[in-house]
Amino acid sequence: MDVAVSVTRISKDIFEIGVHAADVSYFVRPKTAVDKEARDRGLLVRLVDKTISMLPETLHKNLCSFRAGRKRLGFSVIWTMNSDGHIHETWFGKTVLKSCAQFSFAQVQSVIQGSTLSESIKLHDCTASGMEEALRSMSSLAISLRQRRLGLNKSATGQKTRLTFELNANGFPEALSTTSHCEAQDALQELCIMANVSVAQKITKHFPEHALLRRQDPIIDTLLKSFAPDEPNLDMHSFSKDAFEAALLGIHDVEELGLLRFLAAKSARPALYFGAGTTDINKYFHHGHGVSLYTHFTSPVCRYAAIVVHRQLEAALKQEREWHSDKEEDEKIIMHCNVRENASRNAAEQSSHLYLCSYLNRQNLIASHLHQTATVFCVQEDSIDVYIHAYDLRQRIFLDDIYAEHTYDPTTGTITLTWSMEDHRFGAGDDELVLEDVEADLPKSHLHSSTENTHDVIVALDNVQTISRLADIEVSMSVDMNVSPPVIVVDVVNSFFKQV
């Protein structure tokens, strides 16, 4: 953990709250071998099965990692604020930190919700009651800060979802789940956002031509427009991604909520690093967080850009008049950081896709059919777009690939499928399945022999199906493992046939 939080109650309504990042710049000096390697790597890369560090393990997991009861070097942003999140004073400086405790998000969430600390948690130089009060104060102050930043109800918190895989001893995914941000994660994220904003303001004021900042353009609202084509006032250009996320709390339908969050995430443009003196000030805005100035001060273990920001902040605190590098050198670093971040994002997405394909392929080996419920969020003349909640997956299904006659009604925005009297679903034995690397890992009783007749026996009940936006439909899923990368194939299931 390279970020720590401190909370001190000064008076009844005044708090001192700090965000402390590991002082990586103390160990990673400019133009040294470790600096050159960190710069080349650009950032830490997280894949499903492993993490590729930016720094040597001694720094990443020890000297630049806060541990309970151990002294570590930090670079801190400390505010004095009231309970409404109004900041009275901001202090920046190098610190020596000794953490009182180390928690998981689940443990902090439990305390926030009113439980007491588990006796198994070892505390250093503090009491259990004092720590519980500090954690609840942290959550309350973070909510107030978020309200001031976004102008929303205090109960507004983000609930971003992501896929997590459980790998077996051989490295294959045998289970997956979708996890959401809890209030504890949102609290830490909000404090980190405010620390990044405060540092961005400080270094921009001192180095207006060299400050390394981060911006994000407005959301591409094409997907959201396709979801709500009759909403002319849907304008994401004036609505930050965080504000949109928080506003979703007014929607109580779980599946619709999940769909909108997914569309908002897919609609977001990638954030970019930039130099303050090389970009039009009108483009400084970070629409993802809804702030006019932003940078990356937190997580310097994970981002080389944050190490540069630490160096700029230190120079600003020392009142150095000139930044040590010229604009051309700054631009090379910024461009490289953006390229490496884009590559890291693509690698993480491809890693998740590969493991999802492996999981789905293994499920198809175990069961004759893999069916899931999907929500239709866009209906077009030649296709429908569906969101599969179980796998946080968007897929387009072309009508010509469905074994049914189809007609599109532009006035109602619906598609009518007229199914034939024969079901075209096939058993696992009818498709060539890739068994390499997974066959030996599955019990033989779970595998379907390709020589067996696995066709379903079906009876026709009806043959007309109408599909409209927000309709739930049943889809079948399979994976073509013969191509690279593997392709997930989704088909509409004829729901008017049943097995007998």
Automatic annotation (TrEMBL):
This is RNB domain-containing protein. One of its GO terms (cellular component) is P-body. GO terms for molecular function: 3'-5'-RNA exonuclease activity; RNA binding. SUPFAM superfamilies: Nucleic acid-binding proteins (SSF50249). It comes from the Eukaryota. It holds the Pfam family Dis3l2_C_term. PANTHER family: DIS3-LIKE EXONUCLEASE 2 (PTHR23355:SF9), RIBONUCLEASE (PTHR23355). GO terms for biological process: mRNA catabolic process. Residues 1-319 form the RNB domain. It comes from Umbelopsis ramanniana AG.
